[in-house]
Specification:
By secondary structure, this protein is α+β, with helices and mostly antiparallel strands. It is 48% helix and 11% strand. It has two domains: 57 residues, no CATH class; 86 residues, 3-Layer(aba) Sandwich (Glutaredoxin), CATH 3.40.30.10. The protein has eight helices and four strands; from the N terminus they run ααααβααβββαα. A four-stranded mixed β-sheet has the order 2-1-3-4, covered by helices on one side. Bound molecules: FE2/S2 (inorganic) cluster (FES).
Length: 157
């Protein structure tokens, strides 16, 4: 972990009381996850027991304690998506990426997760890649999506 980058973040919160959640969010924005060493440093900075910082970091689903991939692939498994084949789509995503749900590819390019509902039920089944919704997905469409190089796709658009 880059201690200098962490210290710059902590310096912004100098003199503020509380702020644990804000610091955790800012550190995760910077590093993409919450490195263990950062959690100990945050505890030290806030003069809190490390167990308290770890319990907050593990309580919220949106905090990650392990490094995530550059791209987050979220496959909706909510009811509307489920009845239209979301299970097959998730299985296809696992096969394309060579990982199970909840895992990250060894090259840290992709993380795969299942979500309950993305709030786009009319577009079901839905896959979210980073901030982009992919609607009315099929097994064929998800294969195409996950086998094309997303980094190159971004630079072409
Ligand atoms: S159930 Fe999938 S978007 Fe709502």
């Amino acid at each position: 972990m880059d201690t200098e980058r962490l210290n710059k973040i902590l310096a912004v919160f100098e003199g503020e009381r509380g702020g644990l959640i804000s610091i955790l969010q800012r550190v995760q924005e910077e590093f993409g996850y919450l490195p263990e060493a950062a959690l100990f440093s945050i505890a030290d900075f806030l003069k809190l027991p490390p167990s308290q910082v770890f319990s907050v970091a593990t309580f919220y689903d949106h905090f990650y304690l392990t490094r995530r991939g550059d791209h987050l692939v979220s496959v909706c498994q909510g009811t509307a998506c489920h009845v239209l084949g979301a299970r097959d789509i998730l299985e296809t995503a696992e096969n394309c990426l060579g990982i199970k749900t909840g895992q990250t590819t060894p090259d840290y390019k992709y993380s795969l997760e299942r979500v309950a509902c993305l709030g786009s039920c009319a577009l079901a089944p839905v896959v979210l890649v980073d901030d982009e919704i992919h609607s009315r997905m099929t097994v064929r469409k998800v294969k195409k999506l996950l086998t094309e190089d997303l980094d190159n796709t971004e630079t072409q658009t």
